[in-house]
Amino acid sequence: MAFTIVNTPCTVPLVKGFENQNYVGLRPISSLKFKSARTSTFGRSGALFVVRACERFDGSVKKAEMSIEECEAAVVAGNAPEAPPVPPKPAAPVGTPVIQPYQLTRRPRRNRKSPALRASFQETSLSPANFVYPLFIHEGQEDTPIGAMPGCYRLGWRHGLVEEVAKARDVGVNSIVLFPKVPDALKSPTGDEAYNDNGLVPRTIRLLKDKFPDLVIYTDVALDPYSSDGHDGIVREDGVIMNDETVHQLCKQTVSQARAGADVVSPSDMMDGRVGAIRAALDSEGFHHVSIMSYTAKYASSFYGPFREALDSNPRFGDKKTYQMNPANYREALVEAHEDEAEGADILLVKPGLPYLDIIRLLRNQSPLPIAAYQVSGEYSMIKAGGVLKMIDEERVMMESLMCLRRAGADIILTYFALQAARCLCGEKK
Ligand code: PBG
């Protein structure tokens, strides 16, 4: 098995296509570990190798005091100096059939022959700058583990969260998205807590901006954490999710988030027309500089299960199929993408990630806008579970899944692995 996930104990600047400018918390070059990189990873597949342009070896040729002309004359006279002979052909195992080689004009394996060649021809790169780190927050002071998402916590907004953000920045992850666990007593059918300027999210944004002014803060725009029905919109008596009335609330929510200092608001609700309405609301309040990342193709997926447990946001009845998309649909993603583009979205998002690579590629090919992929809670938990059960190599599957999302066309990836993967890319272990 030979795949070329960049997973190296070297420093970040060696990772292909990596820009180390504008970077927060890069490991200094002095922490290079050439030795261990070369000795401990060559044999194992999956790890990258640091290739030095020239090797120093002992027994270097002793320099005779000859001019260039004398050296050339010696060669012309037929006295070429000695160089190592061509090594003998390596032996094949006994019993290997002796055959005439096939006459192939193309042998693609030639370009995969060595670590150095593979590194040269790697088409896709992965960097901590591609990651957006989703973080769950709550009012408490302790961090509480999320059962269905090993390694993830509901973080206390004043303590655990700040520490987690600092850790992420330390390995080059400078973008986060916040998901609040709202006390039940503050939930209502119309989700009005969503635009309380002193609610958990706006308060947290102000705190983070105070501590880390250059942190990029994405927010989630939808009513579900604030809705007593657990739906992304207002639910009518007969169970219908009311579109325009919900959008009205979402506009208030985004303005409140923008006022607190959010950089990118991300409507994940899948109501019709919300991107245009949100753009207008932001602009009318002077927030022209705030971007909109639209959940363009968000599917009604069972992969969200662990997330809903994390936020205790399961719909109280029914499902989300009248607003989230049918997983069987492909062309419908184009309808959504055209609308979002026309309404002024800055980034188009596809969710979930890995099971929907075709949709990522579709939007990548159809739109000049940046594309985001959300590797959702269920994808994360499956990889974690497989790792815990020792059925797969968690770290390598993690890196491969992220690389595949990039290869499919995602510019940025929202992933619960952001910190773990960035540490890996920076050469840190766990
Ligand atoms: C809801 C929202 C969901 C996720 C992000 N925003 C869940 C849902 O639609 O019920 C899911 C993220 C994940 O599963 O990781 N607005």
TrEMBL record:
Enzyme Commission designation: 4.2.1.24
Enzyme class: lyase
Reactions catalysed: 2 5-aminolevulinate = porphobilinogen + 2 H2O + H(+)
GO BP terms in the entry: chlorophyll biosynthetic process; protoporphyrinogen IX biosynthetic process
Gene Ontology MF term list: porphobilinogen synthase activity; zinc ion binding
UniProt-annotated location(s): Plastid, Chloroplast
Gene Ontology, cellular component aspect: chloroplast; cytosol
Biochemical pathway: Porphyrin-containing compound metabolism; protoporphyrin-IX biosynthesis; coproporphyrinogen-III from 5-aminolevulinate: step 1/4
Keywords: Allosteric enzyme, Chlorophyll biosynthesis, Chloroplast, Heme biosynthesis, Lyase, Magnesium, Metal-binding, Plastid, Porphyrin biosynthesis, Transit peptide
Cofactor(s) needed by this chain: Mg(2+)
Pfam family, one: ALAD
Xref: SUPFAM superfamilies: Aldolase (SSF51569)
Function description: Catalyzes an early step in the biosynthesis of tetrapyrroles. Binds two molecules of 5-aminolevulinate per subunit, each at a distinct site, and catalyzes their condensation to form porphobilinogen.
PANTHER family xrefs: DELTA-AMINOLEVULINIC ACID DEHYDRATASE (PTHR11458)
Quaternary organization: Homooctamer.
Family membership noted in the UniProt record: Belongs to the ALAD family.
Protein's UniProt name: Delta-aminolevulinic acid dehydratase
